[in-house]
Specification:
heterodimer, A: 345 residues, alpha/beta, six-stranded mixed sheet, four-stranded antiparallel sheet, 25% strand, globular, B: 280 residues, mainly alpha
Chain lengths: 345, 280
């Protein structure tokens, strides 16, 4: 285990009956990083997190967190904040008292819990005295987030923290996570909201059918197949110019614009070429993103196509979700065969 | 941990409702039985209890305990013991409790202890409330046998039980009734841990209670062999405490049987919970 590794997962395996949920999974999380654990539904993300939190026992392999091997009730879990498979609160008790009970259940005094601070970070100060059963889904979700922050943990393990939240709440949680990351907290974030992950995480671990598919920085995982979307005042002329720019892999019409597979060229290169050729550039934006990289890496479950619920956009159903409805070849931007219809910047 | 558990349980309506039901039932039984005894002083107690109903208000408490011990107390205990663990699972708070981290044995122990205290509190109010009503009707006197006080057949009868003796036996009887119900409640705890479902835990344990009662009432050689091991077989053995001259052998057997049930079921619950994958 490297000195900076906060989480070290080695050869992890777990099956439920004949179903293998996690299969020889290994990865590590460095201190201070924000790591996204990605995978479609049933990929083994939550099972992995549950093993990490000592809730279920792996069949093989090990997980070491902050230097201590995880088992049921491992003491090191006191230094970990968690949010797994949704919030879990006593419905007839207020939000504030729920947090206090949760903290005291560990046999601790309420002082260092920082209940008010956690409520404030989660934006629940005003409603904290109301019974949880009166909370909306989003408020419960944020209370779960506040619970994970109690006692200022060194490691935050979050499983789908923004699931079901409205766009404002998603932004709120994202900003809170970025603040915590800036303060040095290590965060492991499991999600299938790829756009969120892309904005929040600096490292990614992609799993599929319980196995590791890829791990690395966001740039490494997205790979070199980045593309750009361009709109100009003369589409045909732009197409012609861009076909001759060195380093550009392919160019295709995507009315009203053009999709350019960048290859070794950069967006600056293609803007420079267009301007030099006297073509007016109206819009240039990065095109290839985590979604398409993810869909290239992850095979749909047998007999299923990945649907929007497996790979949603920023607000769960926004335009970026539309891309997953496209047939697989159309998604392969690197192939350059078809433009990516309906994909936002 | 225990304080936190108390805080959770005391804020639940079901806790207050159960205690309230016990008080109401105790009041109802006490008033009805006291009135009946007042109108028919020769009548003995239920369950073959050979004491005068009118000789002391404490007898009304004994009668209320008898009626409650057959249905109300077992159901109350099953709810108190079967509900907390499965409710935590249903709310999703169990996983957060365990990642606190708290040892699983400690979580289960806290719930069992708090359930025991609340169940005992609900049980104790029954004889206490009924006795108070009884004392209001008949005063606080030594208990006489039904023959001595009612029919006069046993001339010059001395008190069967002093006031202090009756109170002491009351405490023992209440403890015995609690153990009766706790043996079944152990089954509820085990089922709650296994199923993580309140209804499955409480209803299945109640089903076992009914099955045990039916089996115990059936004739036949086979049944007579297994009956002593049934949790309901010695349910009424505590009545012997109020019938001087009756041996306490049945009660002793009852205590042993219930303890065996309790230890086996609670032990199994601890083993299962400590090995279980928490997926709720």
């Amino acid at each position: 285990m490297s000195a900076d590794a906060v989480i070290e997962v080695v050869g992890l395996r777990k099956s439920f009956g004949s179903v293998v949920a996690v299969d020889d999974l290994s990865f590590s999380v460095e201190r201070g990083s924000v790591v996204g654990l990605l995978g479609a539904n049933g990929a083994g993300k939550t099972t992995t997190l549950r093993m990490m939190l000592g809730l279920i026992r792996p069949r093989a392999g090990s997980i070491t967190v902050l230097g201590e091997r995880i088992a049921f009730g491992a003491k090191v879990l006191a230094r970990v904040g968690s949010f797994v498979e949704g919030p879990g609160f006593i419905p007839h008790v207020s939000g504030r008292h729920n947090l206090e009970l949760y903290w005291r259940a560990g046999g601790r005094h309420a002082g260092p819990a920082g209940v008010e601070e956690a409520l404030s970070v989660a934006g629940l100060g005003d409603v904290a005295s109301r019974p949880v059963k009166t909370y909306s889904h989003g408020m419960r979700q944020r209370l779960g987030f506040a619970q994970a922050l109690l006692g200022k943990p060194e490691l935050l393990v979050l499983d789908e923290p923004v699931n079901g939240l409205d766009p404002q709440q998603i932004v709120f949680v994202r900003e809170a996570l970025l603040r915590l990351a800036a303060e040095g907290m290590t965060i492991l974030l499991s999600s299938h909201l790829l756009w969120e992950v892309e904005q929040t995480c600096d490292q990614l671990v992609v799993v599929d059918h319980g196995r590791l598919v890829k791990a690395g920085t966001v740039a490494e995982v997205i790979g070199s197949a980045s593309s750009a979307y361009v709109e100009t005042d003369d589409g045909d002329r732009a197409l012609d110019v861009l076909r001759h720019v060195r380093g550009i892999a392919s160019v295709a019409h995507a009315p009203p614009g053009i999709v350019v597979q960048l290859g070794t060229a950069s967006r600056c290169d293609l803007v420079a070429a267009l301007v030099a050729a006297g073509v007016g550039v109206e819009t240039v934006m990065p095109r290839h993103n985590l979604e398409s990289a993810f869909l290239e890496m992850v095979a749909p479950p047998e007999g299923e196509e990945l649907g929007p619920e497996d790979c949603l956009g920023a607000n769960g159903t926004a335009e970026s979700a539309a891309m997953v409805d496209l047939p697989a070849p159309a998604l392969t931007a690197a192939g350059g065969a078809e433009p990516l219809r309906g994909v936002g910047p | 941990m225990i304080a936190a558990e108390f805080s959770k349980q005391l804020r639940r309506w079901r806790t207050l409702v159960l205690i309230g039901i016990c008080v109401v039932v105790a009041l109802f039984v006490a008033v009805v039985m006291a009135q009946n005894a007042h109108n028919h002083p020769a009548t003995g107690g239920p369950g073959g209890l050979n004491v005068s109903m009118t000789s002391s208000g404490l007898v009304i408490g004994v009668v209320a305990l008898f009626f409650a011990s057959h249905l109300l107390t077992p159901i109350t205990f099953l709810v108190y013991y079967g509900d907390p663990m499965s409710s935590e699972a249903k709310w999703g708070s169990l996983r957060y409790l365990l990642v606190r981290p708290v040892s699983r044995s400690r979580v289960l122990s806290a719930k069992v202890i708090v359930s025991t205290v609340l169940a005992l509190a609900s049980l104790v109010v029954i004889p206490v409330v009924a006795s108070l009503v009884g004392i209001a009707f008949f005063g606080l006197h030594p208990v006489l046998s039904a023959n001595a006080a009612g029919t006069g057949a046993a001339a010059g009868a001395a008190p069967v039980l002093s006031v202090l003796g009756t109170v002491g036996r009351f405490v023992l009887a209440t403890g015995y009734v609690a153990l009766d119900s706790a043996a079944l409640a152990g089954v509820a705890v085990l089922l709650a841990v296994v199923t993580e479902n309140v209804l499955a835990a409480v209803a299945s344990a109640a089903g076992l209670y009914v099955l045990s009662a039916i089996l115990g009432a059936l004739p036949g050689e086979f049944v007579s062999h297994i009956a002593p091991a049934l949790p309901t077989h010695y349910f009424d053995a505590w009545l012997n405490l109020f019938q001087p001259g009756t041996g306490l052998g049945a009660m002793t057997h009852g205590v042993v049987t219930q303890l065996v049930w309790l230890v086996l079921t609670l032990g199994a619950a601890y083993v299962v919970f400590n090995r279980k994958d928490i997926t709720c």
